[in-house]
Design a protein that fits this description.
The chain has about 375 residues and is α/β, with parallel strands linked by helices. The chain folds into three domains: about 10-20 and about 275-365, Ubiquitin-like (UB roll) (Roll), CATH 3.10.20; about 35-140, Translation factors (Elongation Factor Tu (Ef-tu), domain 3, Beta Barrel), CATH 2.40.30.10; about 155-270, Nucleotide-binding domain of ferredoxin-NADP reductase (FNR) module (Rossmann fold, 3-Layer(aba) Sandwich). Helix content is about 15%, strand content about 30%. The protein contains seven helices and 23 strands. GO terms for molecular function: 2 iron, 2 sulfur cluster binding; metal ion binding; methyltransferase activity; oxidoreductase activity.
């Protein structure tokens, strides 16, 4: 067993926020076959089939994933996501993380169904592979749901903020607060109405509590988050999901208006793969294993798929739980996290394995 299992270190990131992670230790499985149909054994992948596809915008498609025999899937709460595991003939194994929608408007998905929305990013990457190859009847594997962005049902009021494809977990939260008749506001920003998934559904659910901001209009200014937060009553908590600039603006405004930073929860969609990413090998010096990392897979996903226990939590490069010491690298370490400071990144002796990579072909880690 991992000697660190059960320890919950508090980490402070460069913004000064304290992150106390919910620790999930992954231990080696005696059975190398992690695939099971229907209701899963924890930490093993689940076999599902694409049961429905809906084009939401020119770049975003919704996929309904179901168990073939109707077996209920593991339950989850708003804010949860799953890993989608698939294989590209061009680039090998692909692992992508997608938020669970939960249903359409107030209709709840059946217990055997997961609903996700995938935005196509570029013609050669994982999302493009899903758009190009997934059709009704396609079989694939998904992980158990994971939730690093949970909605607190006890709040007096909920402020929901979405930017672009960041609407996916926020839409699930919107459905929850509307069903429970809880006070809320929704701020939804996108370049144009045609590019904004679930826009009509959100407006129908939220009615006059929905503010739509079109960032692609030349006459539109940036959202004034300081004014938005200042107008909220005491007891309001904010949930923001979208690009890094938007998330940072929300945190900056919260600090300026005197909000406790714990009142803002966020999920960041900023560590997307680069078109220049290449596969490489990671040698785990102490473990004595070498793991291949595909161009569409993170180091963390590749290591955990090999049943090697490592610590991780947020998978967004924010919490500071997954950094490992870099012993050797024949290329530049590409830091895509928000945890390490500028000096640490320049020295290059640590790497957040959930989002960062190397430009070389070999990376040696102290693990």
């Amino acid at each position: 067993m991992d000697p660190n299992c059960g320890k919950m270190p508090a980490r402070v990131n460069p913004t000064g926020l304290v992150w106390i992670p919910k620790l999930e230790c992954i231990h080696s499985q005696t059975n190398p076959d992690r695939r099971i149909p229907g209701a899963a054994v924890a930490n093993r992948n689940i076999e599902v089939v694409v049961a429905g596809i809906r084009q939401l915008t020119p770049r975003i498609r919704e996929y309904e994933l179901r168990t073939e025999d109707g077996t209920p899937l593991p339950r989850y709460e708003p804010g949860a996501h799953i890993e989608v595991h698939t294989v590209s003939t061009e680039s090998g194994p692909i692992i992508r993380h997608y938020s669970l929608i939960g249903g359409v408007e107030l209709e709840v998905d059946h217990a055997d169904t997961y609903r996700i929305a995938v935005q196509r990013e570029d013609r050669r990457r994982g999302s493009a592979h899903i758009h190009d190859t997934f059709e009704v009847g396609t079989r694939l594997e998904v992980s158990w749901p994971k939730n690093n962005f949970p909605l607190d049902r006890r709040e007096a009021k909920t402020l929901l903020i979405a930017g672009g494809i960041g609407i996916t977990p926020i839409y699930a939260m919107l459905r929850s607060v509307v069903r429970r008749a809880k006070p809320f506001d929704l701020i939804y920003s996108g370049r144009s109405p045609e590019s904004m998934a679930y826009l009509n559904e959100a407006k129908k659910l939220g009615k006059d509590r929905v503010l739509v901001h079109l960032s692609g209009d030349e006459g539109n200014s940036h959202l004034d988050f300081k004014a938005i937060l200042s107008s909220q009553p005491d007891g309001t908590n904010a949930y923001a999901c979208g690009p890094s600039a938007m998330i940072e603006a929300v945190y900056r405004a919260a600090k300026e208006v005197g909000w406790d930073q714990s009142r803002v929860r966020s999920e960041l969609f900023s560590s997307a793969p680069s078109a220049l990413d290449k596969p490489f090998d990671v040698e785990l010096r102490r473990t004595g294993r070498t793991i291949h990392v595909g161009r569409d897979t993170t180091i963390l996903d590749a290591i955990t798929a090999a049943n090697i226990p490592v610590l991780s939590d947020c998978r967004r490069g924010e919490c500071g739980l997954c950094p490992l010491k870099v012993l050797e690298s024949d290329g530049e370490v590409q830091h895509r996290d928000r945890y390490l400071d500028a000096e640490q990144k320049e020295v290059g002796k640590e790497i957040c394995i959930c989002v960062s990579r190397t430009t070389g072909s070999r990376l040696v880690l102290d693990a």
